[in-house]
Design brief:
By secondary structure, this protein is mainly alpha-helical. It has one domain. It is 94% helix and 0% strand. It has two helices and no strands. α1 packs antiparallel against α2. The longest helix has 73 residues. It starts with a helix and ends with a helix.
Length: 108
């Protein structure tokens, strides 16, 4: 009976050690997940800020270009050609900004 008891005690001790190791692994897994979640949330905030900035810039370009078109519509004489050049340049810059924004969004 003593040998059985000793064996059972030894087995219980091994099981307790394994249980302790399982708990350590669980803590490590929980911490890793928490760290990844924090990094993921930080990255989302950063991307959101970046996207918002780019989109605000594009919208501002659109508004500025629309204002130039309105000014063009009210222009007369030699100012018309100058205004057309400005509108063309603004539209060209807007298109270039859209290309850059699309490329940037695809890269992320």
């Amino acid at each position: 009976m003593t040998k059985t008891r000793e064996y059972a005690d030894a087995a219980k001790h091994q099981i307790d050690q394994i249980a302790t190791e399982i708990e350590r692994l669980q803590e490590k897994a929980d911490q890793t997940i928490a760290d990844l979640r924090a990094e993921y949330e930080r990255r989302i905030r950063d991307l959101s800020t970046e996207y918002d900035r780019e989109l605000r810039s594009l919208r501002q370009m659109r508004n500025d270009t629309e204002a130039r078109v309105t000014t063009l519509m009210n222009a007369s004489g030699s100012a018309v050609e100058e205004m057309r050049s400005g509108v063309d340049a603004a539209i060209n810059e807007m298109n270039n900004a859209l290309v850059r924004a699309r490329k940037h969004l695809k890269e992320l």
